[in-house]
Every structure is written in C-alpha cells, then in structure tokens.
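Z., the sequence and structure:
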Amino acid sequence: MFEKDIPGFGPVRLEHLVSDFTGTLSMDGRLLPGVRERLNAIATFMKIHILTADTFGMAKAELVAIPCDIIILTGDNHDLQKEAYVQNLDAQTVLAMGNGNNDRGMLKAARVGVAISQGEGCAVDALFAANLLVTSADIGLDLLLHPNRLKASLRF
C-alpha cells in the first residue's frame, strides 16, 4: 500500500496502479526504457493492472515477468470499460495513468489521475480529467517510488 497525506488534497491510500499500455508505458508496442524496473518495484507494495486495447498486439509479451494483471479490452467504449474497472476496484484506492481519450474516465474516477504526454502526446480530454500531467512514464511511476514528489505536486 502507498500512503501519503497531502495538505489540501487529503489522505491518499493507494492499493492499485491502473495504467494504459499503448502510449503510456510503451511506444510502438515496446515497453519504454526503465518502465520494467519501476513496475517490478511498485509491485512489491501495490497491485498493478494494465488495461489496453493493445493496438500493436504486443502488451502480453512486453509485460512478461512483471507481476500484473493484463486486461485486453475488446468491443467498443473502452473509456467506459476502463472507468468501470477502476470503480470496481474502489476508485479511492487507485492511481491511474494514461494518455488517450479512452483513459479520461479512469483518470477522472481514480483518487489520483496522472496524464502522461510523451511520444504519442496526450489527448486534451485525458489531460483535463487528470490531477497531474507528467512528461514520461518513468516520471509518473516515480511518483509512487518517491512519495514526496506526489505531495509536492498535489498540495494546495
């Protein structure tokens, strides 16, 4: 579990990291450098869930040996599927990360929503749904590994 009291933002007690894969943790289907190590470190104190449409069909292979649940979304309304997944976990215990329009619902629902803007950019709706914008997956994941960074960004 991740715990941090953030002045003005309130107590943050997180049990789940829910993240998009394509454009958030990966570029062109390949896991970004440093992400594997960070996810393995986070998995020692939080449950990790990867929700993806898997645009490049490589998510399962790229995430092998990382203790996480990988959910490949099918059908339509991926934004609603991701939001419902976060709600079913108890959204107040979730930090969500994403960059696309289909991430906006989970970013808004989660206790902490982190929009990531790197190689693929970040959809404006995802940005407006998040609590925080970072410029890379490693910076976003480091918020959990270095809790005072999250505190410094979200305090009022």
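The first strand starts at residue 2 and ends at 6. The chain has seven helices and ten strands.

Let me know what you think.
H.
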